[in-house]
Amino acid sequence: MKRFLPVVAAMALVVTGGAARSFAQSPGKMPTKADDNLIIKAPAATDLRALTLQDLKDSEEKLTSLAEAMPADKYGWRPAPGVRSISEVFMHVANANFFFPTFWGVQPPASLRDQNLEKTVTEKAKVVQMLKDSFAHLERAVEGVSDDQMTKTFDYFGEQMSTSGLLFHAAIHEHEHLGQLIAYARMNGVTPPWSMPRPGKEATKE
Q: Which of 1, 41, 44, 96 is 20 to 30 A from 121 (CA-CA)?
């Protein structure tokens, strides 16, 4: 896709921006206190929340519009045996949206706990609604993350992860499966809605 993730761009600045820019100004010289005006500062926690929410809303719009554009009879289609079907990928995304906030204390609705959404939600109308509900849940949870929570760490499948790192991971996860579903759609003759030409406007390329 042509557009870079806002969150990815922000994190790249956090990791490399300051030192790289200052070093480029004076090759062979590492930044000093006097070079502070050249150093790109890391975004505040509030900025990271805002960037994450902006990116989640973009992913939500694309994924839900693609789910609505996909014919109902294609929801069980899969590219090969043992690979997730179209409905299963959408529900994998939804399940992750409900799961990620549990790491900072926000639980999914009681009715969804212990449910295997990939196997139990397969009908188009239910898939689309569950996808929308999951994004609403995740976005509310991200809005509620405090500055103190941003730096807290926890075990994430055997690795130490901070809440801010998990927000970054959540944004990447949405786009990973958006790309997968674009491929699924194209293989089934479905053009992503945002790539359709509109009167007076050039179609957006994914």
A: 1
